[in-house]
Amino acid sequence: MSIFYFIAFLSILFAVLVISAKNPVHSILYLILTFFMFTIQYVLLNAQFLAVVNFIVYMGAILVLFLYTLMLINLNKASEPVKSNMVKIAAVLGGGCLMVVIVAALKALGVSQPVLLKNPELGLVKNLGKILFNEFLLPFEVSSLLLLSAMVGAVLLATKDKKTTV
Amino acid sequence: MESFFNTVHAVPLNHYIILSAIIFSIGVIGVLIRRNAIVIFMSVELMLNSVNLLLTAFSVYRGDATGQVFVFFIMALAAAEVAVGLAIIVMIYRNTNSVDINVLNRLKW
């Protein structure tokens, strides 16, 4: 039980470091650590399929894409001007108010039941695959269409076009 | 095996909701305080991930696998979003030589 709180503390700590690190490369590395903590949470919930997908897709593919983009556009550290302190304080106040509202709404609900795993087969690949290919077959196929169009769009946007660039 | 997982995480559902709310708020604050477009994108990823964790927790709580299938779709959507978004950022950098979002205020008024 206490491992949940330890992992939760670490993920909050790394998430704060993501948004407060000056160098964007450090931000990405902290983001990788945050996603690793989320993977551990999925393992604790016995959602094995999601843990593996989170590990491969998020930590493997998406963050490597971020790092490559950062390498391509070659930011030097001094290029990011900071926002004024007024805007920062207002932003932190706004985000804090959002969190307080959610937590206060939760307090009105009273004490909740603990999260217990009733069916140990729930998050396994076999069970999820059966559901995915029976009830969710159409959304699955549509998501393949989405990925194809995103790939075409990304290639189209990122290639150099002589007519539009000056 | 089952008893192992149940002893490990006899965590109240509220604590999962509070954790997700905190991470989501950190993502919102990150979008608001940073000016680098890539860091703003990473904050959006943080928000998506907190929602994923909450959906998984509810799925285990209710004993219904639909939530985990939904998380899978969100991950596919996030991959598509990141590919297109980073392509747009590269294009912006090529045109304006910076990824500072305050340069991009032509659509402001």
List the helices and strands and how they pair.
The complex is a heterodimer of chains A (166) and B (109).
Chain A: H1 2-20, H2 24-44, H3 48-73, H4 85-107, H5 125-134, H6 137-158
Chain B: H1 2-8, H2 13-33, H3 37-62, H4 66-96
Describe this structure in words.
- The complex is a heterodimer of chains A (166) and B (109).
- Chain A is mostly helical and 166 residues long.
- Chain A has six helices and no strands.
- Chain B is mostly helical.
- Chain B is built from four helices and no strands.
- In chain B, helix 2 (13-33) packs antiparallel against helix 3 and helix 3 (37-62) runs antiparallel to helix 4.
- At the A-B interface, helix 1, helix 2, helix 3, helix 4 and helix 5 of A face helix 1, helix 2, helix 3 and helix 4 of B.
Sum up the structure in keywords.
heterodimer, A: 166 residues, mainly alpha, 0% strand, B: 109 residues, 4 helices, elongated
Low-confidence stretches of chain A: none
The arrangement of helices and strands of chain A along the chain is HHHHHH
Structural class of chain B: mainly alpha
Helix content of chain B: over 70%
Number-wise, the strands of chain A total: 0
Helix content of chain A: over 70%
Number of helices of chain B: 4
Cα end-to-end separation of chain A: 59 Å
Shape of chain B: elongated
